[in-house]
Amino acid sequence: MNTSIETLLERVGQRDGAAFRALYEAMAPKLLGVALRILKRREGAEDVVQDVFVKLWNGQAVFNAALGSGPAFLATIARNRALDLLRRQGGRAEAEDSGLEDLMDLTPSPEAVVADRSDLKALLGCMQHLTEGQRRAILAAYVDGASGEDIARKLAAPVGTVKSWIHRGLASIRECLGR
Amino acid sequence: MTTESERLAIEQALGNPSDEDRAAIATRLANEPGFAAEVSAWQYRLAPLAELVPPTAPGEALWERIAARTVQATPGSVVSFEDALATRTQALQTRVQRWRWATAAAAALAASLALAVVLRPGAVQGPAGQQFVGVINASGELPPLLVSVDLARGEFSVQPVGLKPQAGKDYELWAVPANAKPISLGVVAKPDKRAIDARAQINWSDPALLLAVTVEPTGGSPTGQPTTPPVYTGKLIAAE
Question: Which of A4, A90, B20, B79, CA to CA, is 20 to 30 A from B109?
Answer without folding.
Answer: A4
